[in-house]
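## retry 2 of 3
previous attempt timed out at serialization; input unchanged, resubmitting
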Amino acid sequence: MEELLKMRASAEEKYGKELVAISRKVGGLYEICTLRTSIDEMKTQTETIGNLHIQLSALLKEEAKRIEQFREKQKEQRKKLEVVVEKVQKTKVSFYKKTIESERYYEQRCREADEAEQTADKMSNTSTATPKQMDKLSSKSRLYRETAEEAERQYISNIEQLDKIRHEWESTHSNTCEMFQQQEEERLKVLRNGLWVHCNHLSMQCVKDDECYENVRNMLEKCDIITDLNGFVVMKGTGSARPAAIEYQNYYKKDASAARNGSTGLVGQVKKKFSNLLQGTSLTGCDISIQNDPVAQSTGETFDRLYAAIPASHGSQNIEQYKAVYEYVAQRDDELSMSVGDDVLVIDQGEDGWWMVQKYGQNGLVPGSYLAKE
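## retry succeeded, writing output
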């Protein structure tokens, strides 16, 4: 019983400490609102349950200590009773030996007295015996008889004392057995009650655990998904209006508008560079890497080398037929949409890279780099 309580106390203490450690390491730190409250409640109740198990461990240790004290007390009582019984038993054994010796001594003296009387009777029947011899034998016979009687009295006294000691031994032994039986009854009663109390402790622990878990369930009933979502919106929201969509801006259209507004020169040259790349013309023999910035160059020679592959257009030219090599979707009213493979008539090749073309009787601007001469 002691070992059971001690081992269970150790297990409860270890379990309680682990629960407390779990409650302090568990996650949920990034949750918000009601779910965060529920997780915190779970952590709190887990720690409470861990502390309750630690308290249960202390109760079991106290119970084990009481069992140990009871065991030691019974051990001391039993030892005292055993000392008394052992003492009485030694006295009985000693008197028993003494009585047996007195019996033997008494029998020996009786035999000696009988032998002396027989010898005296024989001597008295013979004619050769003298009165002096007869007196001597009679004295000897009388002495032996007295000795035998004394031995008999001692023997009887020892028998009486042994009987008293035997009664005392039997009484002590009986009382000791009754005490041992009483101790056994108390031991069984204490163990039965200890197990009963132990079960009550464990049942009470289960009830307390269930109360803690019920608190968590009550908190989870209050956990509302909509409330948590609204709380997240309130905490993390950046405004009630959505950001405006990014509109598509055609690079060539933007540059053409800038050219129409008087922004010519370098911007147009850069635009021509990208137009040439879109068209697929290679810059063979160009010694300028992609890291070089044309804007940073101060001489016109560099620009002439860079854009040498692009033929210059000056003013109006004769109407020629071209084919669309890229698809283009018109972005303005003065532009014209075309698909890959469409045949168009080039009316005017603008220096800004926008050409005036005609397709199916409709006129409009298109990127010149999207066209190739048939």
